[in-house]
């Protein structure tokens, strides 16, 4: 027999793992100064990679996210996947009540809807207005210079005068009657996508939860299709905020809500217009409607995309989908990175039984064709 | 809610990787699937540490059902030694201490398989778990799951039958090669997973419980023991399995064991000639040993 199908599979897998580990550590061959990536270095210097992985992994565990980034050599899909798989081994012990994001300890907060907003605009850390020029001086950064920068910055930084909470821009719009009142469904218990499958139609909280841990690029692509013309959201960012949200859990003994820690989050609220005759909950009066996006970590593009899609999906749920971005099944079943990357990868596995069956059908129909001709 | 974790030694993973609540949830879905043969039961589906599409649905079923005294067989494309089978078996061995594994169909109590049902008829003391990429046979005619649910409820498979009919008009043959739509217990039509048509008759009146797990699509369904399973066909166009006859009409035999009644893999040799060998490696070994 000249060819024996996939024998010694176990040895092949072990050898593939070994050569992958070789690539991870190869740097050790070229210089004695080669150091393994420290988890702390990933947490701080590759923070947006960590942000992305905690968000797509659906677990707020920055240390394990950094570990996942290290072992996957920076592959975000693989890293989020490892984090998600770890999550499967943890029971759900408690659920938080809805948390009030006006209580966020903000590092950044902007509104594009108004020049000034109550509490003030706060640009914070953002590359938005930076020139994307390569900073060639970082090619060979000295450790001393690197360590001095943060210290210097703190010295020149004025004493923070920030209040504990900032009012939400949306509340002002709502008070003015430009937004419909908060719908009663907001008070319903949130749908837990980690414990219940999506059976359509799904409540909005299920859609939001699915998008909150969706793959950033997938979410962006579908949201972008809506922005470009396959949809009609035309959003305005009423408020985008990034900061640390206190997490409240019922105390195990007293049941009293107790702060258990805080999570870095990005939240985005967009407003967009409904056509007057379609407006609901408002007696036919034209009103803004809200799209909401929120996710773990500092991921602004993701939060904005999510907010636009939330608004698009609400329209689709009400009027029927006119575009893919308004179709809940289309959006929610195709944005999960773990699902989509897994399925794309599975085509690399052997498929020779089904291919044999395909060959049988093709040959039979070709033979029939020949007989007819 | 008295699911006790089977963790030993403190920080090790739980027996069967999943936490006990997750296992209970899968078992509940299994009971419902058995009670409504062919119905796709939605379940939450945890992420497993291997890729979606690599058998995570099957694996969750296996891990929810497996006990410490289980004798487990894992196959892919009929082979125990295929990379994916090796990988899954190793994971099961790692996370289920005490479980024994075998390649012998006759000896196992639980089988996880991708794309094949073993040639040796299974018995009432065995369960086979099949890995499923597409749980719904209607997806070829209707992309919306919401609409498909209604169609299943009403046993409305007319569009599927029209698809088969159109095949006959266009090609004078039904062109569905694998994942052949099969009606269970006279109502629900299932996608029997990408098993070849060769394996579809094994679903009918099976002595063993047959479970289907779709991890990415979050569905579990079942063909309970001794349940009717009928591939969709027409009275004048019967269902047919893969044809392994050569040009002269002679049934090809396995080049290794000589079997003329098993599904064959086709190999192209370096000289360009074709040879055939059993896809079911345990079957092939058994026939060869008894020869």
Architecture overview:
The complex is a heterodimer of chains A (373) and B (291). Chain A has 14 helices and four strands. With 373 residues, chain A is α+β, with helices and mostly antiparallel strands. In chain A, helix 9 runs antiparallel to helix 11 (300-319) and helix 10 packs across helix 11 (300-319). Chain A is globular and about 80 Å long. Chain B is an alpha/beta fold and 291 residues long. Chain B folds into two domains: 20-140 and 177-231, 3-Layer(aba) Sandwich (Rossmann fold), CATH 3.40.50.11310; 243-291, no CATH class. Chain B has six helices and twelve strands. Chain B has helices at residues 20-35, 56-65, 83-95, 145-153, 158-171, 281-290; strands at residues 41-42, 71-76, 100-101, 110-114, 127-131, 182-184, 189-190, 209-214, 219-223, 229-231, 264-268, 274-278. In chain B, the strands form three sheets. In chain B, strands 1-9-8-5-4-2-3 form a seven-stranded mixed beta sheet. In chain B, helix 1 (20-35) crosses helix 2 (56-65). Chain B starts with 19 loop residues before the first helix and ends with a helix. At the A-B interface, helix 1, helix 6, helix 13 and helix 14 of A face helix 1, helix 3, helix 4 and strand 11 of B.
Task: Describe the structure using short key phrases.
heterodimer, A: 373 residues, alpha+beta, 2 domains, 4-stranded antiparallel β-sheet, globular, disordered N terminus, B: 291 residues, alpha/beta, Rossmann fold, 3-stranded antiparallel β-sheet, 6 helices
Briefly characterize the structure:
With 373 residues, chain A is of the alpha+beta class.
Helix tally of chain A? Answer: 14
Q: Number of helical segments of chain B?
A: 6
Tell me the span between the first and last alpha carbons of chain A: 38 Å
Q: Name the chain pair with the biggest interface and residue counts per chain.
A: A-B, 59 and 75 residues
H and E string of chain A: HHHHHHEHHHHEEEHHHH
Q: What is the number of strand segments of chain B? A: 12
Number of discrete domains of chain A: 2
User: What gyration radius of chain A follows from the Cα positions, in whole Å?
Assistant: 25 Å
Q: Helical percent range of chain B?
A: 10-25%
Going across the major beta sheet of chain B, what is the strand order?
1-9-8-5-4-2-3
- Looking at CATH, which topology of the largest domain in chain B would you report? Rossmann fold
Query: What integer is the average pLDDT of chain A?
Result: 89
Order of strands, main sheet of chain A, comes to 1-2-3-4
CATH superfamily of the largest domain in chain B: Bacterial phosphonate metabolism protein PhnH
Strand count, sense and barrel status of the largest sheet of chain A are: 4 strands, antiparallel
The amount of beta strand of chain A, in percent, is 5-15%
Question: Roughly what percent helix of chain A?
Answer: 40-55%
């Amino acid at each position: 027999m000249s060819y024996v199908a996939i024998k010694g599979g176990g040895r092949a897998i072990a050898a593939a793992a070994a050569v992958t580990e070789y690539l991870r550590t190869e740097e050790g061959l070229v210089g004695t100064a080669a150091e393994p990536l420290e988890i702390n270095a990933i947490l701080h210097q590759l923070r947006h990679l960590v942000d992305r992985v905690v968000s797509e992994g659906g677990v707020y565990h920055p240390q394990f996210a950094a570990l996942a980034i290290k072992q996957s050599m920076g592959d975000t899909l693989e890293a989020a996947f490892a984090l998600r798989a770890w999550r499967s081994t943890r029971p759900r012990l408690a659920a938080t009540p809805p948390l009030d994001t006006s209580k966020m300890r903000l590092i950044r907060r902007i509104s594009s809807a108004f020049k000034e907003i109550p509490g003030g605009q706060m640009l914070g850390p953002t590359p938005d207005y930076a020139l994307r020029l390569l900073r060639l001086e970082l090619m060979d950064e000295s450790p001393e210079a690197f360590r001095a920068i943060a210290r210097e910055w703190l010295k020149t930084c004025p004493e923070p005068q920030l209040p504990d909470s900032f009012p939400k821009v949306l509340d002002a719009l709502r008070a003015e009657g430009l937004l419909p009142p908060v719908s009663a469904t907001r008070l319903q218990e949130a749908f837990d996508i980690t414990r219940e499958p999506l059976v359509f139609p799904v409540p909005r909280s299920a859609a939001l939860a699915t998008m909150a841990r969706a793959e950033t690029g997938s979410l962006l692509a579908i949201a972008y299709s809506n922005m470009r013309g396959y949809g009609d959201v035309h959003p305005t960012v009423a408020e985008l905020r990034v900061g640390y949200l206190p997490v409240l859990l019922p105390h195990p003994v007293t049941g009293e809500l107790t702060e258990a820690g805080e999570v870095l989050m990005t939240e985005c609220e967009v407003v967009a217009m409904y056509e007057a005759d379609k407006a609901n909950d408002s007696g036919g009066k034209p009103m803004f409607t809200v799209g909401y996006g929120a996710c773990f970590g500092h991921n602004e593009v993701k939060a904005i995309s999510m907010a636009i899609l939330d608004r698009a999906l609400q329209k689709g749920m009400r009027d029927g989908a006119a575009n893919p971005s308004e179709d809940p099944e289309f959006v929610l079943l195709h944005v999960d990175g773990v699902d989509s990357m897994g399925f794309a990868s599975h085509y690399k596995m052997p498929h020779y039984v089904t291919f044999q069956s395909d060959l049988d059908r093709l040959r039979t129909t070709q033979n029939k064709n020949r007989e007819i001709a | 809610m008295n699911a006790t974790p089977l963790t030993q030694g403190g920080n090790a993973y739980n027996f069967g990787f999943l936490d006990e609540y997750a296992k209970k949830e899968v078992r509940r879905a299994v009971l419902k699937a058995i009670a409504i043969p062919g119905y796709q039961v939605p379940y939450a589906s945890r992420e497993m540490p291997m890729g979606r599409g690599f058998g995570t649905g099957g694996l969750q079923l296996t891990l929810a059902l497996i006990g410490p005294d289980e004798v487990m067989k894992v196959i892919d494309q009929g082979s125990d030694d295929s990379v994916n089978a090796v990988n899954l078996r190793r994971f099961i061995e790692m996370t289920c201490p005490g479980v024994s594994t075998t390649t012998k169909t006759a000896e196992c109590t639980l089988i996880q398989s991708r794309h094949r049902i073993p040639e040796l008829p299974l018995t009432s003391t065995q369960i086979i778990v099949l890995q499923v990429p597409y749980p719904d046979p209607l997806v070829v005619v209707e992309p919306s799951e919401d609409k498909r649910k209604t169609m299943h409820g009403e046993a409305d498979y007319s569009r599927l039958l029209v698809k088969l009919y159109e095949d006959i008009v266009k090609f004078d043959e039904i062109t569905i090669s694998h994942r052949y739509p099969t009606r269970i217990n006279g109502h629900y039509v299932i996608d029997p997973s990408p098993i070849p048509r060769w394996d579809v008759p094994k679903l009918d009146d099976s002595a063993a419980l047959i479970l289907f797990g779709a991890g990415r699509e979050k569905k579990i369904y079942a063909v309970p023991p001794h349940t009717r399973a009928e591939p969709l066909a027409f009275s004048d166009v019967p269902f047919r399995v893969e044809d392994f006859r050569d040009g002269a009409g002679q049934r090809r035999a396995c080049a290794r064991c000589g079997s003329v009644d098993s599904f064959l893999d086709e190999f192209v040799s370096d000289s360009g000639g074709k040879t055939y060998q059993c896809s079911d490696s345990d079957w092939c070994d058994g026939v060869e040993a008894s020869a």
